[in-house]
């Protein structure tokens, strides 16, 4: 057992400030230990929370790095950041609709669960159709597990599929096929225009099992992973450091609003969010000493902020399929627009889900992601050689996604930069190879070697 979870005095060290301070201490140590010169240039990068850390590290310790790449980083999803609390689940819905799902079918299936959860006969039907594990059997309102828990289980599966809607099979969260959202939408097709509860619910189960049980090997549906003796088809029941940070300093103002914003039950709004969050945190961490005084609603604003007018050398990338893109920097974020001359870049990437750009290159990557990676390397070259006549690099628009894009026979690509692509510029496009010499006389292979030996990888 990890004693860190047992008492609040230990959990109190779990902060972004502490993580960044640790990295600030680690970098000089690493350089000294492995014989790197003190002036070795460092680029920090990360995806999701790691992207937030990369951004904040660049803001808080700018002398320790020459730049940061923040992929899928929701750095403005906080009180005062200007993002609607329902933004995340609105993008979830958009991703499903753009993948062929019928909104009314999903809405009707959730309504059927709500209705059936009110009667003994209905609850029995839900347990049977969804094959609920005997340790998490749902009952009437007020019992340990109810139809509300079943809906939350389904909601998380739907949300996670949108997050990880990659074009090739992955096991990042669960084992899933390529484009899992499209697969889920196909499984919902038999229920389109149906008013039969059974038809709706079996289709919804089939769809959500693209996430929880694509292999079909999970014997039952488990609503609480701590209560079942298998992991497939179950929500995690273990402690989660991210949850604790959401109950202290990283207070992400997010909740489902219900239709028409999203598919799910409305649990709060901008006015009631904080009360909802306090209740949620008390239920999880109250037993180890958490109180509402631990919530620092404006901690991220006060520690780091989201005004980038004085910042330099940060790449922000957000996939349009990714629900977290709702809270990435945008044209209204101070210091983001027309800021390439300061090394600030903001890319919205068509056909990309959660930090796809940071994953291993794959033959099934969309062209938008391939082009993005090529541009990122050009930006790195400028950060490493800022006096080059090719700098600052001016970003160019990434391609969209064709409706016919449906790759197959996918495989990972190793050691083949720049993947047959070309260097984009504002006025021309020049082909490059791995032997091309950069503007400052540094070969691309050397630049990549410099990057790889200088990278500090934050947790994805």
TrEMBL record:
Gene3D superfamilies, A to Z: alpha/beta hydrolase, Serine carboxypeptidase S28, SKS domain
What SUPFAM superfamilies does its record include? alpha/beta-Hydrolases
Q: Which Gene Ontology BP terms does the record give?
A: proteolysis
Would the keyword Oxidoreductase be found if you checked this record's keyword annotation? no
- Superkingdom assignment: Eukaryota
Q: Where are the transmembrane segments?
A: 438-459
Write the record's keywords in alphabetical order, separated by commas.
Answer: Glycoprotein, Hydrolase, Membrane, Protease, Serine protease, Signal, Transmembrane, Transmembrane helix
Matches recorded under Pfam families? Peptidase_S28
Q: Does the keyword Secreted apply?
A: no
What molecular functions are annotated in GO for this chain?
Answer: dipeptidyl-peptidase activity; serine-type exopeptidase activity
Instruction: Tell me which family the UniProt entry assigns to this protein.
Output: Belongs to the peptidase S28 family.
Q: What is this protein called?
A: Peptidase S28
Source organism per entry reads: Panagrellus redivivus
């Amino acid at each position: 057992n990890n004693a860190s979870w047992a008492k609040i005095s230990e959990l109190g060290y779990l902060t972004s400030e502490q993580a960044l301070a640790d990295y600030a201490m680690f970098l000089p140590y690493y350089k000294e230990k492995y014989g790197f010169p003190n002036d070795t240039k460092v680029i920090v990068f990360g995806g999701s929370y790691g992207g937030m850390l990369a951004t904040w590290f660049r803001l808080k310790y700018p002398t320790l790095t020459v730049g940061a790449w923040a992929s899928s980083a929701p750095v403005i999803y906080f009180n005062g950041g200007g993002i609607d609390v329902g933004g995340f689940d609105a993008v979830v819905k958009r991703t499903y609709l753009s993948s062929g799902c019928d909104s009314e079918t999903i809405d009707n299936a959730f309504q059927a669960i709500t209705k059936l959860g009110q009667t003994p006969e209905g609850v029995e039907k839900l347990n049977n159709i969804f094959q609920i594990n005997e340790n998490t059997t749902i009952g009437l309102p007020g019992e340990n597990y109810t139809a509300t828990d079943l809906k939350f289980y389904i909601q998380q599966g739907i949300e996670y599929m949108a997050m990880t809607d990659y074009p090739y099979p992955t096991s990042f969260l669960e084992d899933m096929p390529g484009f899992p959202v499209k697969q889920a939408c196909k499984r919902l097709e038999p229920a389109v225009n149906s008013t039969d509860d059974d038809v709706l619910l079996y289709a919804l189960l089939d769809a959500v099992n693209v996430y929880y049980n694509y292999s079909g090997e999970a014997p039952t549906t488990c609503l609480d992973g701590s209560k079942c003796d298998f992991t497939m088809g179950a929500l995690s029941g273990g402690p989660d450091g991210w949850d604790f940070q959401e109950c202290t300093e990283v207070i992400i103002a997010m909740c489902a609003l219900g239709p028409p914003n999203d598919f799910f039950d409305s649990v709060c709004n901008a006015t009631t969010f904080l009360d909802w969050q306090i209740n949620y945190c008390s239920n999880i961490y109250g037993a180890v000493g958490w109180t509402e005084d631990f919530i620092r609603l404006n901690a991220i604003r006060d520690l780091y902020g989201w005004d980038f007018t004085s910042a330099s050398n940060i790449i922000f990338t957000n996939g349009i399929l990714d629900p977290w893109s709702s809270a990435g920097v945008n044209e209204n974020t101070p210091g983001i627009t027309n800021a390439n001359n300061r090394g600030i870049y903001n890319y919205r990437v068509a056909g990309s889900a959660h930090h796809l750009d940071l994953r291993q290159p794959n033959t099934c990557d969309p062209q938008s992601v391939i082009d993005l990676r090529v541009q990122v390397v050009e930006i790195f070259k400028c950060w490493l050689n800022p006096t080059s006549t090719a700098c600052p690099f001016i970003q160019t628009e990434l391609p969209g996604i064709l409706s016919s894009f449906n790759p197959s026979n996918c495989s990972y690509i190793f050691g083949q930069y720049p993947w047959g692509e070309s260097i984009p510029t504002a006025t021309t496009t020049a082909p490059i190879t791995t032997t091309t010499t950069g503007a400052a006389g540094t070969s691309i292979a050397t630049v990549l070697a410099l990057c790889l030996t200088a990278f500090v990888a934050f947790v994805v």
